[in-house]
Design the sequence.
């Protein structure tokens, strides 16, 4: 029985094992438990706030985990738990991820446990930080003591990093951070008060934080007891804020009237004035030093993420019972608060005085009932400002260079930072604002170890050294200088520059800060612009090597704006800027082959840097496209949408009330359209209205036809078929026709050059035309260097034979190339003006055919003449009665009379056969 039971048990286990395998149920190996015998267990410390309104407490749980409580943090990019061997710049930037958990959201007073990665232990960690990998940012950190040292700091010094921050002390559980309090109460949506009661020390620590401008004050205080209205009058208030040097202050004020502090005719202060002002003017007060009446002491202050925070301490039972009120424990008291502009000190009032707060109640000012002895925490999560950038803003001016130097960091916006950072116009790491299309000049004087460049990398310092990629928009290692020898860097952001880039040093990370790139005027962002037909749309463009950037702006309100390339909407390629129901802008592309909705066919053009925006109903669309689509010509309709910069681009426009990407109907048709196309000269940066052939180009065509179709061929025919005539008439005709034709060719070329304002050799017509002109110009030069003709009976030298063949070949080749140039010119005319030139082309072809028939006829008669002449060879002639081509008709000495005089001196003897 025992054996049977054992066998059954084994079979059951085997069956269970096979069942688990069949269902693919994994066997999970139990994870090793962490030992709790680490000496750090129980260590607790508050986070140093550096960015993103981070607050919380870290407590070591065991050898491989810790617990975080009361955790506040604004969302970052790629935030991780980070470990380092120290809290200095070098150690932090060379730190490491200590947990697989990510912190990619906003945290609101949350508590959770964090487990260290399997390859990390507390032996490796001296600093635990909340770190954004994308920006290399330390949001906040905790300093961890070495094992065996309990809660001692082991030489590490806390670095709160806030403006005007004081050093913090080490408590039994770590560092007591000035941003941490026991209680918190919402005064308004954007204003909070935090406090920690220290009854045994007769004091209360108060922290005021608000989403407000850096020039504003934060006021908080106690109303006069038993007041039922007018709580501001006779209230004891502390006004806090920052000086112009970003130093936090907290001043004790007393309110006697609803106006700013001033003196009456008797020199008595009234309004919202510091206690010390009342004390000095009060004759009953014998206090020689007015400052003791200010029982408020500033402890710490910072300005981070668009939030002002000031911590101060005041007495519960004040020494000054005339202008200060006692804070009673375990009792409800009315407190008042306000936000407003600070008036900085001047020669009359050496105080930071609050101006009238104005604004709506409970947003800019208000009151509440508060019992400081009660535990209150209704501040759920961090304050979140819309504008989180507190750095100085510098707007670049094209005419004024930005002076770049380096100096000690005082309030660098992205900690941690190196020992020196970049200053621009004497401001530490300011936020730069530039406009697309407007050149910016930097005068780099930061030292030979600081080279400026504009990059897409937020850290700088050459991203390739970190195995990262970056786009460099300007600058580099050579752009370094000193005040005695500055280096100038000129950068012109264009429409393709991202909205956010960074100015940094090539050699060191995190020395610079952000550059905001905004749209300037379209005329600044693009090289050329023209107003389209009817002056209801404007067309902008910038040409590059193989692409074109285009913008179009309507000049009246509309629901969509379309621009097309073609003589009319039918058979054109169209770009439509429109907005969907969510208000998002789009640019869609179409080919149109009809006049109704079914004639619109969506295309798939490769557009980049696409933008569409509407301002007060005025639509602007922008995009960049290739000049020649990358797809084969006949694959899709858009493959034929080629933009040739040398050929005028015919542009039309249309506007309508509503567009839809799908289900287009006649309701989407335009209500306004261009009356005619406009030819845009992309290379010249100008435009002309669609019209008939322009007179100057017409003259150019006629002159070229006269030269290549009549004069130059006539000169060649004279040299070929008129030598049998007596005298040198053939030669005179040949020379006059050739030189006349060449002069007309050159004049026609100059006419076209002036009309088009440049020479563009990309078209086939221009290439053939230039070739023909070069060959034609070579002929007079060739004729000038012709070798001398041999005397009768002499054998022609080889150079004479080569010259004759070369002169004939080049001349006839020039004629043929010129005729091809005429034909391609007709085709170019059709492309340029969109006219039907088939009739003119056929007329030109018929002219050439007629000329060819004439040549065949003359060639036939020339062959017969030579045959007859050969048969009459018996008529021997002594002398030279052949054609003489040695006369120079362009020289006054080469006259016919001279030739006849020379022939008269010769005797001719003719022998005739006996018949």
Sequence:
């Amino acid at each position: 029985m025992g054996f049977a039971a054992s066998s059954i048990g084994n079979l059951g286990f085997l069956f269970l094992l096979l069942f688990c395998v069949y269902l693919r149920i994994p066997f999970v190996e139990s994870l090793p438990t962490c030992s709790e015998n680490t000496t750090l267990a129980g260590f607790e410390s508050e986070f140093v706030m550096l960015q993103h309104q981070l607050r919380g407490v870290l407590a070591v749980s065991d050898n491989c985990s810790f617990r975080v409580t009361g955790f506040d943090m604004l969302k970052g990019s790629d935030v991780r738990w980070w470990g380092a061997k120290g809290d200095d710049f070098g150690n932090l930037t060379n730190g490491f991820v200590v947990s697989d958990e990510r912190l990619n959201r906003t945290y609101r007073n949350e508590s959770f446990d964090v487990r260290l990665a399997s390859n990390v232990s507390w032996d490796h960690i001296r600093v635990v930080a909340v770190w954004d990998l994308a920006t290399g940012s330390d949001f906040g950190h905790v300093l961890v003591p070495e094992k065996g040292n309990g809660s001692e700091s082991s030489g590490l010094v806390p670095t709160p990093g806030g403006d005007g921050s004081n050093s913090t002390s080490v408590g039994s559980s770590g560092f007591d951070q000035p941003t941490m309090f026991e209680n918190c109460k919402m005064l308004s949506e954007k204003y909070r008060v935090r406090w920690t009661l220290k009854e045994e020390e007769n004091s209360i620590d108060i922290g005021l934080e608000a989403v407000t401008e850096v020039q504003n004050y934060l006021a908080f205080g106690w109303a006069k007891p038993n007041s039922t209205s007018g709580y501001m009058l006779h209230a004891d208030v502390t006004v806090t804020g920052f000086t112009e040097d970003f130093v936090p202050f907290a001043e004790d004020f007393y309110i006697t009237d609803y106006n700013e502090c001033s003196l009456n005719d008797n020199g008595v202060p009234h309004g919202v004035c510091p206690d010390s002002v009342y004390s000095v003017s009060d004759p009953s007060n014998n206090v020689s030093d007015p400052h003791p009446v200010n029982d408020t002491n500033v402890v710490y202050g910072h300005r981070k993420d668009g939030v002002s925070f000031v911590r101060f301490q005041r007495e519960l039972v004040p020494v000054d019972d005339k202008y200060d009120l006692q804070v009673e424990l375990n009792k409800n008291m009315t407190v008042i608060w306000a936000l407003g502009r600070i008036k900085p000190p001047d020669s009359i009032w050496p105080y930071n005085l609050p101006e009238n707060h104005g604004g709506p109640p409970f947003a800019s000012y208000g009151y509440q009932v508060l019992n400081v002895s009660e535990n209150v925490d209704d501040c759920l999560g961090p304050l979140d400002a819309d504008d989180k950038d507190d750095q100085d803003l510098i707007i670049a001016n094209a005419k004024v260079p930005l002076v770049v130097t380096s100096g000690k960091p005082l309030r660098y916006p992205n900690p941690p930072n190196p020992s020196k950072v970049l200053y621009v116009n004497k401001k530490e790491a300011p936020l730069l604002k530039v406009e697309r299309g407007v050149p910016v000049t930097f005068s780099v004087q930061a030292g030979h170890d600081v080279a400026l460049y504009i990059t897409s990398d937020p850290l700088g310092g050459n991203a390739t050294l970190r195995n990262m990629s970056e786009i460099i928009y300007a600058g580099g290692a050579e752009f370094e200088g000193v005040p005695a020898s500055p280096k100038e860097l000129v950068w012109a952001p264009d429409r393709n520059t991202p909205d956010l880039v960074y100015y940094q040093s090539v050699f060191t990370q995190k020395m610079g800060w952000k550059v905001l790139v905004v749209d300037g005027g379209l005329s600044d962002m693009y090289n050329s612009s023209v107003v389209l037909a009817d002056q209801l749309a404007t067309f902008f463009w910038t040409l590059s090597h193989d692409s074109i950037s285009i913008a179009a702006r309507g000049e009246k309100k509309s629901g969509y704006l379309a621009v097309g390339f073609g003589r009319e909407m039918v058979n054109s390629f169209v770009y439509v800027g429109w907005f969907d129901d969510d208000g998002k802008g789009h640019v869609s592309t179409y080919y149109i082959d009809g006049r109704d909705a079914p004639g619109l066919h969506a295309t798939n053009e490769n557009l980049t840097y696409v933008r569409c925006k509407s301002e007060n109903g005025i639509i602007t669309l922008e995009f960049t496209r290739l000049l020649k689509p990358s797809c084969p010509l006949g694959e899709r309709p858009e493959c034929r949408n080629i933009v040739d910069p040398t050929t005028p681009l015919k542009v039309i426009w249309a506007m309508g009330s509503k567009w839809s990407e799908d289900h287009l109907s006649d309701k989407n048709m335009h209500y306004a359209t261009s009356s005619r196309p406009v030819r845009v000269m992309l290379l010249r940066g100008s435009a002309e209205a669609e019209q008939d052939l322009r007179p100057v180009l017409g003259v150019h065509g006629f002159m070229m036809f006269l030269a290549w179709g009549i004069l130059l061929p006539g000169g060649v025919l004279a040299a070929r078929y008129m030598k049998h005539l007596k005298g040198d008439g053939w030669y005179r005709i040949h020379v006059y026709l050739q030189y006349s034709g060449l002069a007309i060719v050159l004049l026609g070329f100059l006419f076209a050059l002036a009309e088009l304002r440049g020479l563009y050799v990309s078209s086939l017509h221009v290439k053939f035309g230039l070739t023909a002109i070069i060959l034609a110009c070579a002929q007079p030069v060739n004729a000038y260097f012709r070798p001398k003709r041999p005397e009768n009976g002499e054998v022609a030298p080889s150079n004479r034979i080569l010259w004759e063949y070369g002169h004939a070949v080049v001349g006839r080749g020039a004629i043929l190339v010129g005729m091809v140039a005429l034909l391609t010119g007709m085709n170019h005319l059709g492309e340029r003006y969109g006219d039907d030139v088939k009739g003119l082309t056929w007329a030109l072809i018929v002219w050439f055919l007629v000329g060819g028939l004439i040549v065949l006829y003359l060639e036939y008669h020339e062959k017969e003449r030579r045959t007859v002449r050969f048969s009459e060879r018996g008529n021997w002639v002594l002398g030279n009665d052949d054609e003489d081509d040695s006369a120079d008709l362009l020289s006054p000495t080469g006259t016919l009379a001279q030739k006849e005089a020379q022939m008269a001196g010769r005797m001719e003897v003719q022998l005739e056969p006996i018949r």
About this structure: The longest strand covers residues 333-343. The chain has a mean pLDDT of 82. The chain has ten helices and 51 strands. The longest helix spans residues 798-833.
